[in-house]
Amino acid sequence: xxxxxxxxxxxxxxxxxxxxxxxxxxxxxxxxxxxxxxxxxxxxxxxxxxxxxxxxxxxxxxxxxxxxxxxxxxxxxxxxxxxxxxxxxxxxxxxxxxxxxxxxxxxxxxxxxxxxxxxxxxxxxxxxxxxxxxxxxxxxxxxxxxxxxxxxxxxxxxxxxxxxxxxxxxxxxxxxxxxxxxxxxxxxxxxxxxxxxxxxxxxxxxxxxxxxxxxxxxxxxxxxxxxxxxxxxxxxxxxxxxxxxxxxxxxxxxxxxxxxxxxxxxxxxxxxxxxxxxxxxxxxxxxxxxxxxxxxxxxxxxxxxxxxxxxxxxxxxxxxxxxxxxxxxxxxxxxxxxxxxxxxxxxxxxxxxxxxxxxxxxxxxxx
Length: 367
Known about the structure:
The chain is mostly helical. The protein has 12 helices and no strands. It has one domain: Amino acid/polyamine transporter I (Up-down Bundle). Helix content is 73%, strand content 0%. The longest helix is centred in the last third of the chain and has 37 residues.
């Protein structure tokens, strides 16, 4: 950044952008992946992982607070040096590009598979990437306003679909303690990691935050909110569709519920798919923004808009090659473990280096 960012992001927008980045991929994959390992205890695994991730998000916010006017495209060079800093940013940027493309491919594949069978998958992927570019070009102030609107668009529908199903049926959510060995529960926890990919985007939003003193509360609250939604959705899926039916890609179609009018739930199912587009764009755009800023961080002469357009063009070219949906899902499971390992190890390393730098200089690391 050539000049100090103007604080323009409210605390609530900070919450919606962090939680919005998490929602898209989690709702699509979490019930199926976790329940395949954890069984009826899946919702407890999801809840436990979310609580751990909330604590990790607090550490991520603490790291961002060490550099209140700089984002993750700038302070790595201060902590690692110009060469190692650029190497780390290159890996981080490639990870962001992969997550952006994977998000678009997963949603496009599900939309084509479930609703629009005759339309090629890459058409939907291109639409998502184009909308993501438009959101990125609005910069952080405009992007956070979009994420706030997407939050208010998607959350009521999620609650409308999930809460009535759980009412009066909580007895079915009792976990079967001991029905799964500890190693299977651990596998389920690892499978849930992909659903929390992207919380580190707060490193790019923090410099624009108006009230930084309360940032930790809102950052951890965003992950706890996502955890609550994940837990509700996983419990509902396990309760009504059974473990054996969770191998269906995406949320099992609501029309299989017995005693319910099929036409009504087909409409809700279709509506959910299209409303979910808003959160998909939030996730994809956050990763495109991340890759753009990191590319700028490696060469300050690059234009933000031109760099974003160039990266988006490369993603569009890659999206034309359709990836079978099952391969995309399998890759997302493996990617989640790598992503979480990379982000957490980087976070701990940077916190250690920042504390050393601060202790040695006696001042804020960015000074």
